[in-house]
Write a structure and sequence with these properties.
Elements (H helix, E strand, L loop, with lengths): L11 H4 L20 H14 L2 H13 L8 H10 L3 H10 L5 H13 L3 H13 L6 H13 L3 H13 L7 H13 L3 H10 L5 H13 L3 H13 L6 H14 L2 H13 L6 H13 L3 H9 L6 H13 L3 H13 L6 H14 L2 H14 L5 H13 L3 H9 L6 H13 L3 H10 L9 H14 L2 H13 L7 H13 L3 H9 L6 H14 L2 H14 L4 H13 L3 H14 L7 E6 L2 E6 L8 H17 L15 H9 L2 H13 L6 E6 L5 H14 L2 E5 L4 E5 L2 E2 L6
Parallel strand pairs: 3-4
Antiparallel strand pairs: 1-2, 1-3, 4-5, 5-6
Helix pairs in contact: 2-3, 2-4, 3-4, 4-5, 4-6, 5-6, 6-7, 6-8, 7-8, 8-9, 8-10, 9-10, 10-11, 10-12, 11-12, 12-13, 12-14, 13-14, 14-15, 14-16, 15-16, 16-17, 16-18, 17-18, 18-19, 18-20, 19-20, 20-21, 20-22, 21-22, 22-23, 22-24, 23-24, 24-25, 24-26, 25-26, 26-27, 26-28, 27-28, 28-29, ...
The chain binds one DNA strand of 10 nucleotides through helix 8, helix 10, helix 12, helix 14 and helix 16.
Organism: Dendrobium nobile (Orchid)
Pfam family, one: PPR_2
Protein name: DYW domain-containing protein
DNA sequence: CTAGGGTTAG
């Protein structure tokens, strides 16, 4: 067999500096002498250039010239590992009678870098069996493998071994990763002991402990360690600043946050991406989204993490539209979204119930291979559910080989929102078989669904399971669901009795009772519940509104006016009702009596016609939903211009002549009773399905009926 | 060896 020309192995640029190889163009086809220095030089170059092909060629060359290549096995391994092929390295490794400890440890850390912790641990164990003494490099990487595999005992044993060989307390590398290991298991006591055992602490060790504390909700401790660190004159680095700011954000400790911002600028880390990203997150958690944006705008080349962070900040500040346009800018700036980005952006879509956008991201996830990520999946389930497409949510959910708690909760919520209480209960009864332990959120979702669908007996059964099956003490939220369920089923006395068992009822609970009183016109109990809410929060405007609604529905206009005056005096700004609809890739927003839409005239004309047609089908404006005392005619007018009616009119207008059979509108508050009746009739008039998502759930109107069965 | 961003429920 012809030998490979050496020129291809050794680039001309490098061999000029390695005269001992003596490669001359005339010598290129002659086999070289079996000189280990020659191969060492070559392998060093291969490692430096990280070239897998070159390394393979060198090994082949060794075999062809009969050179005992295993004598340079450690070199070969190192070259293969530098060029990224653990498997090639492993082949050499397995052939060697006695690989060097350095080879063992670099094999182990390479496996870990490639997320092959299983193989790393296996190698570590053989090392121990063969009575080899692992070095500091082995120890500093192996703990990561144990925490990846959730093998606490394995890691603890390795900790013991590191102590035995005298490598723990004296070595910051080993100790830092040990601190991280213990923190991954929530064992902060042990982490702290390891940390304290090190005499010569450094930045990395301290940072590891800070991170450990923040990941386990011990944010105060994290800030304390940061202080200790500064007192010992250890300079914080970009990692440290990035980590300690998380603690400030979690605690909403703006004072510390601003101090640290100053320290970052002073120590020259002001333009480093990790501290900047953490800073902007911190500001948003402290409610200062403008400052987040300022920091973000100061980042020269935001990477995926920074973009994701700012999208998340905008989402949490309820600036969803801006969050979406940030996502678009990210794409325009050719920064590739990852699973974090997609799940965050999907959350934005879920929040605005943007079905099409959600599907686009779903498509992107499938193309880019991110659709298997469980965060992406549960965000998709959530988004589809909140868009009223629970079938799609189910499809995504079923793609999970092992469903997890979050996606299950999202799916349950999806069915609950679209009023399919039976499926919710079926899923709930299946959780055990799926190997999932329900948590408090599961119960909130299930009970809420029962309440939404008026499933009294099922609700009671599920509620009692909280005590017997899971001994999850019900929280106020669970009680609120039950009070709502009992109250809406007309069992107000029972609801009241249940409420009396709650140790510390919160205002949500009392307001739920108040809501139930409203449905059944129970004025006395309503007044009592309202008083309770106001004792807890005198500024709760929702209560005033509910109360005035009750008076209004009973026709007691004097009381209504009194409350309205009171509210006005107190200077509340009621969240205005807003409805919106997605037409031609644009969000069109409407407020009551809104004249601002460019097609305003056409919309009002359409609305008038629809009202006339529905009146033909028996629509009678129900003025008890109007809060002011007005002339009957005016009451009607103000009803007619409710935001959801305008949105429906616009939807009808813009879907005319198009093939789509569904009009979907959204409202930030709950749909009003009069509009609810009216939209039912509209669906009959236009012969199309109308979906309305309000603050609590979906209403699917078809042929004069609504999926909620008028129960909401 | 250490780092920044993520899903449900309220």
């Amino acid at each position: 067999m012809r030998l490979l020309p050496l020129r291809t192995i050794c680039s001309s640029r490098t061999y000029a500096f390695t005269p001992e190889v003596q490669l001359t163009p005339t010598a290129k086809d002659r086999p070289p002498p079996a000189n280990s220095n020659f191969y060492i030089t070559l392998l060093n170059q291969c490692a430096a250039e990280k070239s897998l092909t070159q390394t393979r060629r060198v090994q082949l060359h060794m075999k062809q010239t009969g050179f005992p290549h295993l004598s340079l096995g450690n070199k070969l391994i190192s070259a293969y590992l530098s060029s990224g092929s653990v498997d090639d390295a492993r082949n050499v490794f397995d052939d060697m009678p006695q690989p060097h400890v350095v080879s063992w440890s670099s094999m182990i850390s390479s496996y870990i870098r490639q997320e092959r912790s299983q193989e790393a641990v296996a190698l570590y164990k053989s090392m121990i069996i063969e009575n080899l003494v692992p070095d500091e490099f082995t120890f500093s990487s192996i703990f990561r493998a144990f925490s990846d595999l959730r093998l606490f005992n394995g890691g603890r044993t390795a900790h013991g071994q590191s102590v035995v060989v005298g490598l723990q307390a004296g070595n910051v590398y080993v100790s830092s990763s040990l601190v991280d290991f213990y923190a991954q298991f929530g064992r902060l006591g042990e982490a702290r002991i390891v940390y304290d055992s090190v005499k010569a602490k450094d930045v990395v060790l301290s940072t590891a402990l800070i991170v450990g504390y923040t990941k386990n909700g011990e944010d105060r401790q994290a800030i304390e360690v940061f202080g200790e660190m500064l007192n010992s004159y250890i300079q914080a680095n970009d990692f440290t600043f990035a980590s300690v700011l998380i603690a400030c954000g979690n605690l909403k400790d703006l004072t510390s946050g601003i101090l640290i911002h100053g320290a970052i600028l002073k120590s020259g880390f002001g333009s480093w991406i990790a501290p900047q990203t953490s800073l902007l997150s911190m500001y948003s958690k402290c409610g200062l989204i403008e400052d987040s944006l300022k920091v973000f705008n100061g980042i020269l080349n935001p990477n995926t993490v920074a973009w994701t962070a700012i999208i998340g900040c905008l989402l949490h500040s309820h600036r969803e539209e801006e969050a979406l346009s940030m996502f678009r800018s990210m794409i325009l700036n050719s920064v590739a979204p990852n699973a974090f980005t997609l799940s965050t952006t999907l959350s934005v879509c879920a929040s605005l119930a943007l079905f099409e956008q959600g599907m686009l991201i779903h498509a992107y996830a499938l193309k880019s291979g991110l659709a298997a990520n469980r965060f992406v999946i549960s965000a998709l389930v959530d988004t589809y559910g909140k868009c009223g497409h629970v079938g799609m949510a189910r499809m995504v959910f079923d793609s999970l080989s092992a469903p997890d708690l979050v996606s299950l909760n999202s799916l349950i919520n999806g069915y609950g929102q679209s009023g399919n209480g039976e499926e919710v209960v079926r899923l709930f009864d299946m959780t055990k078989r799926l190997g999932i332990e329900p948590n408090d959120a599961t119960y909130v979702n299930v009970l809420f669904a029962c309440s939404n669908s008026g499933m009294l007996e099922e609700g009671r059964r599920v509620f009692s399971l909280m005590f017997t099956d899971h001994s999850l003490g019900p929280s106020n939220d669970h009680y609120a669901c039950m009070v709502g369920l009992l109250g809406r089923s007309g069992r107000l006395e029972e609801a009241e009795e249940l409420l009396s068992k709650v140790q510390k009822p919160d205002k949500v609970l009392w307001r739920t009772l108040l809501g139930a009183c409203k449905i059944h016109g129970k004025l006395e109990m309503a007044k009592w519940a309202a008083r309770k809410v106001l004792e807890l929060d005198p500024g709760d405007e929702g209560t005033y509104i509910l109360l005035s609604n009750i008076y209004a529905s009973l026709g007691k206009w004097k009381e209504v006016i009194n409350i309205k005056c009171l509210v006005r005096e107190m200077g509340f700004k009621k969240d205005p009702a807003v409805s919106w609809i997605y037409v031609n890739k644009k969000i069109h927003t409407f407020m009551a009596g809104d004249q601002s839409h460019p097609d305003g005239e056409l919309i009002y004309k359409e609305l008038e016609e629809l009202i006339e047609k529905t009146k033909g089908l028996g629509y009678v404006p129900d003025t008890s939903f109007v809060l002011q005392q007005m002339e009957e005619f005016e009451m009607e007018r103000s009803l007619f211009y409710h935001s959801e009616k305008l949105a429906v009119a616009f939807g009808v207008l813009s879907s005319r002549g198009k093939t789509c059979n569904t009009i979907t509108i959204f409202k930030n508050l709950r749909v009003c009773g009069d509009c609810h009746n009216w939209i039912k009739l509209v669906s009959k008039v236009i012969g199309k399905e109308i979906i309305a998502r309000d603050a609590k759930r979906f209403h699917k109107y078809r042929d004069g009926l609504c999926s909620c069965g008028d129960y909401w």
